[in-house]
């Protein structure tokens, strides 16, 4: 853990004074977990997320937190333990990546179906085969229909901020859904950068205490969780999951504004960068957004109206907001860091095309699947996308609806 | 400073290329700069060629891709030259620092430099003398500051001392050895600057 800290000069207004620290993404998330001080953490280590629970287990051993740390023999068991602990009314967190998240898969659906507000830090990593430990978004995308809220982070600061907010979002009485906060494997998880850290007491005051109205450990009102539910009621119960998902967009923004008041960093469903008057827009998730910002700046200097739309909340997907932001643009390039293997590009592309279906002024749109297994995506590749968008904008014609960016064919 | 400075460290697993980048990043942060420090992503193996990176700027750094055109290359192990393209992408106005006992002229030839600045020092000998082990990362850290003056030397050494105190709580002799190594290497490079 880095020691270099200076007083924060930038956080003005009503924001509380913050320390500026040099932290990796994993250290930043472990720090957020320490400040949240959850009741239970159950986890199994996996690269590149190992450090999160390794650092956190040190906090437990040193008595810095009051958490009951459950060391388990697999990620399936980790999520099972989280579910049990959350059902009895504990505040529960865990961390994983890639194959680990995949092994949790059946339990992820159970966590959501039981309305348990577990918060999970996922460090985005490719899925096998072939074996690869580096970043792409395939792992999170595999869980996109599980009923979990999904929040992507561009950098270590956002991973820290999102982790703190996720507690409030998940536990909100109108939501009560599990939430996963993601960051890009190695690029963010192992990269040290500048992170503004809130004081412990500010985080504890922000997250408050978790007092669920309904819990399993209530001997006066015995309940059954996860009972058999056949053709008679299963459908009704699953239908109910749509309510908190629909409500989540509003709650996420409300909590993002409240967080802005204490931190000076306000969060919404997405971030637009030089987007207002942009004619050519790239839409993407995660750390590549930061690199794309530098390309947008360069293009703006040469007179090209380039812009970036970074999606923060992938579940629930902000369909209406995306449609309003993207219609009328000269060309839109979608960058997917996972391949849907659906026959037409990645999952982000599918969502955005769906979002724009009713729009009267649909922009020409192309998908670029990039960065699989940690393949680097530097300014040159992003520039290549903008160059193609400029060509598409001239004719309004998209020759190829999706292609692979930065791959050897 | 204004512009973004990118640094690439070359070493072998175990020589401390990653730690050097972290220490340097931390020292620059303490001096009020924006920083990134990251290893070449992946599992590390003792003795295998590794690289690590720094980005330093007065402004927030948002770029998150690999460093392709470093301003500074620091080579902890001269045996990498020839098997790893250590000067790949080095800027025309760049700086190279090499841990070697060989004279600068010979090294310049080996590296096929195109007018970039070169500093050579026997950081391994300095490490043996001060720390008692061939760990060239901290002396090369001192050399980097001497050559580039990106961060104030006294600030850097104070910051590094704090970090080392934390890391080697039970081995105070290691701390002093490293600090001596940093200072000595700094002075060797300052003398080369003339």
Order of helices and strands of chain A: EEHEHEHEHHEHEHEEHHEEHEEHEHEHE
**Mean pLDDT over all positions of chain B:** 93
By CATH, the superfamily of chain B comes out as Pyruvate-ferredoxin oxidoreductase, PFOR, domain III
Number of helices of chain A: 13
* Separate helix tally of chain B: 6
Largest beta-sheet characterization of chain B: 6 strands, mixed
Strand order of the largest sheet of chain A: 4-3-5-6-8-7-13
Count of beta strands of chain B = 6
CATH class of the largest domain in chain A: Alpha Beta
Counting structural domains of chain A, the number is: 2
Can you say what the CATH homologous superfamily of the largest domain in chain A is?
A: Thiamin diphosphate (ThDP)-binding fold, Pyr/PP domains
Mean pLDDT of chain A: 95
Give the helix/strand class of chain B: alpha/beta
Most extensive interface between two protein chains, with residue counts: A-B, 33 and 28 residues
Predict the CATH topology of the largest domain in chain A: Rossmann fold
Question: Can you give the helix content of chain B as a percent range?
Answer: 40-55%
Shape of chain B: globular
**Number of DSSP-assigned strands of chain A:** 16
Describe this structure in words.
The complex is a heterodimer of chains A (409) and B (194). Chain A is an alpha/beta fold and 409 residues long. Chain A has 2 domains: 5-263, Rossmann fold, CATH 3.40.50; 270-405, 3-Layer(aba) Sandwich (Rossmann fold). Chain A has 13 helices and 16 strands. Chain A has helices at residues 25-36, 50-61, 75-87, 98-103, 105-113, 138-141, 156-171, 200-207, 234-263, 288-301, 319-326, 347-355, 379-395; strands at residues 5-7, 19-24, 40-43, 68-71, 92-96, 119-124, 149-152, 179-184, 192-197, 270-273, 280-284, 306-311, 313-315, 331-336, 365-370, 402-405. In chain A, the strands form 3 sheets. A 7-stranded mixed sheet of chain A has the order 4-3-5-6-8-7-13, sandwiched between helices. In chain A, strands 10-12-11-14-15-16 form a 6-stranded mixed sheet, with helices on both faces. Chain A has a 3-stranded antiparallel sheet with strand order 1-2-9. In chain A, helix 1 packs parallel to helix 7, helix 1 (25-36) packs across helix 8 (200-207) and helix 10 (288-301) packs across helix 13 (379-395). Chain A starts with a strand and ends with a strand. Chain B is built from 6 helices and 6 strands. The longest helix of chain B has 22 residues, at 172-193. Chain B has one domain: Pyruvate-ferredoxin oxidoreductase, PFOR, domain III (Pyruvate-ferredoxin Oxidoreductase, domain 3, 3-Layer(aba) Sandwich). In chain B, helix 2 (104-111) links the parallel strand 5 and strand 6 (117-121). In chain B, 41% of the residues lie in helices and 19% in strands. Chain B has a 6-stranded mixed sheet with strand order 2-3-1-4-5-6, with helices on both faces. In chain B, helix 1 (17-30) packs across helix 5, helix 3 (123-130) runs antiparallel to helix 6 (172-193) and helix 4 (137-148) packs parallel to helix 6 (172-193). By secondary structure, chain B is α/β, with parallel strands linked by helices. Chain B is globular. The two termini of chain B are 22 Å apart. Chains A and B meet through strand 9 and helix 10 of A and helix 1, strand 2 and helix 5 of B.
